[in-house]
Amino acid sequence: MELIRPRGGGAAASVFSPFSAVRTSLQILNMKLSGLLAVFLLFCTSRRSYGSHPKPSCHYPPSQWCRTLEIAIECKVQKQCMELNAIKPNQTVPPVSVTLYYESLCPACRVFIAQQLFPTWTMLQDIMTVTLVPYGNAKELPSANSPFTCQHGEPECQGNMIEACIIHLTGHSAFQIINCMESAANVLDAAQPCLQLYAPSVSWTRVDSCVKGGLGYQLMHANAVMTRALNPAHTHVPWVTFNGVKH
Fold this sequence. Notes:
It comes from Scomber scombrus. Dimer; disulfide-linked. The chain has 9 helices and 8 strands. By secondary structure, the chain is an alpha+beta fold. The chain has a 4-stranded mixed β-sheet with strand order 3-2-7-8. A two-stranded antiparallel sheet has the order 1-6. The two termini are about 15 Å apart. The radius of gyration is 18 Å and the shape is globular.
């Protein structure tokens, strides 16, 4: 976990716990969906170790966990799958919106994406949307030559901008590409092959032009504005909101 230290040398932020009960102000069905997402994410948290790379929790990928009763039992998600199947046919409201504020080279962010958020989205993408905001604890500076400084140095600033450009250019394929990058041994080296794998119609030249041109800085500025607008302000990364609300 990456923490923001309070000014004046105070204690670090509390232990990262982004998944608590959904507030009663949400619509009833949205409450059920948000609660179900929290259950799945907490379930993934309890079943996966925090290493540098994802480790499967059963013999099937997350997208197949609810395909049959036998698979659900083997992967120990029978209760969650039954709840999911009970809710999905009655869906009458928009999908639950999950927004992740993160940094491209943050170890905790990488594990969270690869081991928790992406597997959950793979299973529940018909009732769940994910917005990725690569910025985190970066700072926006007035300097035209180096407008951003990042917690893990210049490589992270580059990674943040590459991912911001990929998200902008690839649409629905973006999360697959970002997960591919964050799951790799080297995030920056994986960018081009992951793009070619999941969005072959988007050339690396377009991403490179975005990163080196004005568009990349505009996208990063927009991410900075979104991150600064968080209420309550983020105290660590990864930072997750459900339907715009921190839990």
